[in-house]
């Protein structure tokens, strides 16, 4: 029997209920005036929340080192591309399983999201 240590992190979408959303650390850190604003930002974000271990050098979450997707740890072999949006940092990475993944980090929420698996 396989035991998954990954947290039960829900798929985020506009139809999600407040009770389905995780409590936001950023609200507790005082980054938002209300929990409602933080929940609205989280609902507007598409993708699946994932657990990521990232290198933080001169800035926070400078690059991902590994992530957990569907109870499987995927080590980052290479960062193929990265770009910066208004609210997000995007990373196109090559995993140790040979797949290419698109991840994004929401700077204000300090939360990582899996977007999709890409063609190489």
List the helices and strands and how they pair.
Layout: E1 11-12, H1 25-28, H2 35-44, E2 47-55, E3 63-69, E4 72-84, E5 88-95, E6 100-106, E7 111-118
Question: Explain this structure to me?
Answer:
This protein has 120 residues and is mainly β. It has one domain. A six-stranded antiparallel β-barrel has the order 2-3-4-5-6-7.
Number of discrete domains: 1
Oligomer type: single chain
Report the portion of residues in β strands: over 45%
The low-pLDDT segments are 5-28
Mean pLDDT: 78
Helix content percent band = 10-25%
Structural class: mainly beta
Distance between the termini: 34 Å
Q: Specify the number of helices.
A: 2
SSE arrangement, N to C = EHHEEEEEE
Task: Give, in spatial order, the strands making up the sheet with the most strands.
Answer: 2-3-4-5-6-7
DSSP strand count: 7
- The 3D shape can be described as globular
> How would a textbook summarize the main sheet?
6 strands, antiparallel, barrel
CA radius of gyration: 15 Å
């Amino acid at each position: 029997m396989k035991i998954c240590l990954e947290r039960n992190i829900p798929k985020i979408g506009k139809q999600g209920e407040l009770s389905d959303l995780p409590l936001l650390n950023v609200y507790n850190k005082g980054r938002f005036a209300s929990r409602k604003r933080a929940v609205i930002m989280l609902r507007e974000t598409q993708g699946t929340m994932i657990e990521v271990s990232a290198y933080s050098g001169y800035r926070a979450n400078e690059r991902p080192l590994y992530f957990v997707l569907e109870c499987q740890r995927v080590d980052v072999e290479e960062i193929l591309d990265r770009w910066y949006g208004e609210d997000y940092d995007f990373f196109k990475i090559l995993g140790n399983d040979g797949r290419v993944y698109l991840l994004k980090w929401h700077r204000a929420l300090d939360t990582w999201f899996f977007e999709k698996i890409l063609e190489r």
